[in-house]
Amino acid sequence: MTQFLHSLPLVGKITICRQGDPLSGRFVGAFTWNSMSGRSVRLKPVPLQSLSELERVRLQEVAFSRLLQEYNLGCQITIPKDGQKRKKSLRRKLDSLAKEMSKDKEAMPQAFGILLSQVISNDRTHKQRQEPQREEHRDPSDLVSSLLHLTSRKSTKDKELSSSNSSLSSTSETATETPSPSTPEAATHTRRRGGVSVDCITDLDDNQSRLLEALQLSLPAETPSNRKKQRDKKLSLNPIYRQVPRVVEMCCLHLEKYGLQTVGIFRVGSSKKRVRQLREQCDLGMEVQLDEANSVHDVAALLKEFLRDMPEPLLTRELYTAFLNTMLLDHPDQESTIQLLVYLLPPCNSDTLQRLLEFLATVTAHAEDSRDRDGHEITGNKMTSLNLATVFGPNLLHKQKSSDKEFTVQSVARAEESTAIIGVVHSMITTYETLFMVPPDLQNEVLMSLLETDPDVVDYLLRRKDSQHS
After folding, report:
1. φ, ψ of residue 60 in degrees (nearest 5)
2. What are the helix (H) ranges across 264-376?
3. Phi/psi of residue 370, each to 5°?
4. Beta-carbon neighbour count of residue 290 at 10 Å?
5. What is the model's pLDDT at position 199?
6. Contact criterion met (CB below 8 Å) for 113 and 309
7. 450's torsion region: left (phi>0), alpha (psi -120 to 50) or beta?
8. Does residue 221 sit in helix, strand or coil?
9. Are residues 463 and 39 in contact, defined by beta-carbon separation less than 8 angstroms?
């Protein structure tokens, strides 16, 4: 079918089309795009978690490119890999072997001292096991009402996203309701073009997994560009679920409810016995219920232990030097580079960091004494953003775990690094509300990169953005 390019009055128009295909989304300048249905979509700042899985991966690449082109951090920068395996020393290999041999004697921990991606996976498995039990005790009338509600919402969403000329009509992708990032089950059935989404590979049984592996091994060697295209096809066009460990969410909720007026929270000592009991319950995969009977200081210590014992720090070792060197830049550039480095983090690290910073900002908002409506004085917790950065900085950003003896005698260089670590985390706490917002210019670069390699999905993303804005 002959394609006609309709002229647009704005300068800088970019139109991508292919012979025999409907016209894809069009960039018309000033962060404004036209969808195939004729709707004009102006890009606005959006939360990082609202981006689709594909957009978040492309945002990593765009942020990486901008860091190299516009800022000189004086160090090598690499995009951290989720659950990346590292070369092990002989000592670490022996330790790993000893752990493998003791598997039968001791259950593997479910939360503490393991990779963050594994913690998230364990939490998903736990939730999937809990769902059948909840359904057994669910009122049938509630189930009927929920189904009617979902059906009505799906019908409304289908009408909003339907388009007779959609370039996705030839694929297996159907425009469905955007799942909530907090519901893993909603994301597990997202598919693109007949490919298996990374979210639903874990749902395959053993025979299907072997078949998928055999098919992958039988494929001929691919070029890097082809591998990139194949990777993108497996990424969801919808937001992935919010990846925050249960133990982190549990501790934050408890401390927000009971600990905001506690003086010296995170500084006052806790009961090692009670903290160990809570830790063991979490590692056994138990459903831990925290209430007013639990000491605020015990829960605060549990949260710090989780972050401290992570084999890979939350801000990753790959970006350690880059984060520290942001403190050498001018203040406006500090915030910009820290934000770009945050975009490089794997989703589980980024989502967990956002939840933690949101909590720390809430704590510091109650640092000073205040008065209630009746004029009664409310004691502040005295934990300013600088105090919290001092406490949490070494747990979030470090090259390697150091012993107590190494901390007692610090060199000048070590002291300078500690100051920079505190500065980075302090900046994150004070700017967390904008830190995880994606500005229009970066969204624009993401869409432009998709136009070059995957133009058929741009229109779908534009319509979803338009639906979110409206």
Report:
1. -55, -45
2. 272-283, 296-308, 320-325, 331-343, 347-365
3. -150, 180
4. 17
5. 42
6. yes
7. alpha
8. coil
9. yes
pTM, rounded to two decimals: 0.74
Place of tokens 């002229």: 7
3-class SS of residue 250: helix
Radius of gyration of the chain (CA): 25
- The dihedral region occupied by 31, where left means phi > 0, alpha psi between -120 and 50, and beta the remainder, is left
Number of residues in the chain: 470
Structure tokens at 288: 């831990």
- In 3D, which of 216, 189, 219, 214 has the Cα closest to residue 202? 189
pLDDT in tens, 359-383: 999 999 999 999 888 888 989 999 9
- CA-CA distances (angstroms) from residue 310 to 321, 400, 424, 459? 19, 11, 19, 40
Quick one: which of 396, 402, 173, 435 has its CA closest to 306? Answer: 396
Distance CA 124, CA 297 (A): 28
Q: Find out whether 116 and 245 touch, Cβ atoms under 8 Å.
A: yes
- The separation between CA 294 and the C-alpha centre of its own chain, rounded to angstroms, equals 29
